[in-house]
Q: What sequence folds into this?
């Protein structure tokens, strides 16, 4: 089982038609091409940025299958297949594996707030049902639970678990995990603003929101830090920092879809209960992007 999670992965947005009722696959294909042309290591459909909570089961399955078909092996595809119901996560994972993904990503079960033992049993069961490598996704702010390091280390008895996307915001927790897990568990940043810090403690890459819009610049930033060229990495980070913050002026992916709309890559529509970026913030975001200029 060979899977290298090093580098830039884009948590790809899901373009909808103007009324939000269906997925705009023409726009999606163009968005994927931009990512591939920019040389991203991989794309992650059906994550938070992809609005997975508002996709129907049929759309979820179709979007992952279409991603594999459109990418055609030119980058890695990591399917988001997590759920707060273990049986559903297993079903989504098995479907993604059949579709030909390179790996799957499993978010913490949300809303039902499982215990650490429940988290262990959940992830273990889903990972054992997978035929491809598994990336865990620890995001306390979205799920109301944190996968503690002791639980993460217990889960390493499942060979297919190879990495964690860490979005807990707790660098001390990440550093302690990396120190104990070593090379057995790859560490990916799940927060663009923390990427330099995560890479500095042994992280190997990022699953990024901003790379939907700036894949080349984000990729160059990550490559610079990984190669030890910290001066170049810092320069690119500070160029992009304002946009990183702007992507969370409202709930993700509201701002980044507005930014994609400014680039003509999608309509910018989101599905309720999310709502589009208010006009004053759209103007501020547009001005910010004008100052940043084109991706390069």
A:
């Amino acid at each position: 089982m060979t899977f290298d999670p090093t580098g830039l992965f884009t948590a790809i947005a899901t373009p909808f038609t103007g009324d939000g009722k269906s997925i705009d696959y023409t726009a999606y294909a163009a968005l994927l091409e931009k990512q591939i042309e920019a040389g991203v290591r991989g794309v992650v459909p059906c994550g938070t940025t992809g609005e997975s909570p508002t996709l129907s089961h049929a759309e979820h399955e179709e979007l992952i299958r279409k991603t594999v078909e459109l990418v055609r092996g030119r980058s890695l595809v990591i399917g988001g297949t997590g759920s707060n119901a273990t049986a559903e996560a297993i079903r989504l994972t098995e479907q993604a594996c059949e579709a030909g993904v390179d790996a799957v990503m499993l978010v913490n079960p949300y809303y039902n707030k499982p215990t650490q033992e429940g988290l262990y049993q959940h992830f273990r069961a889903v990972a054992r049902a997978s035929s491809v490598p598994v990336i865990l996704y620890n995001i306390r702010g979205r799920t109301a639970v944190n996968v503690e390091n002791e639980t993460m280390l217990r889960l390493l008895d499942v060979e297919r678990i190879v990495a964690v996307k860490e979005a807990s915001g707790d660098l001390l927790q990440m550093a302690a995990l990396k120190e104990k897990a070593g090379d057995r568990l790859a560490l990916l940043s799940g927060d663009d603003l923390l990427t330099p810090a995560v890479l500095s403690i042994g992280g190997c890459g990022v699953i990024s929101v901003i790379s939907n819009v700036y894949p080349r610049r984000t990729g160059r930033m990550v490559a610079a830090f990984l190669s030890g060229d910290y001066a170049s990495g810092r320069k690119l980070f500070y160029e992009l920092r304002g946009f990183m913050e702007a992507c969370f002026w409202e709930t993700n992916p509201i701002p980044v879809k507005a930014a994609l709309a400014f680039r003509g890559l999608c309509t910018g529509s989101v599905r309720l209960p999310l709502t589009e970026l208010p006009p004053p913030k759209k103007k501020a975001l547009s001005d910010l992007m004008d100052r940043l200029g084109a991706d390069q």
Remarks:
- The chain has one domain: 7-230.
- DSSP finds twelve helices and eight strands in the chain.
- The longest helix spans residues 230-246.
- The domain at 7-230 is CATH 3.20.20.70 (TIM Barrel).
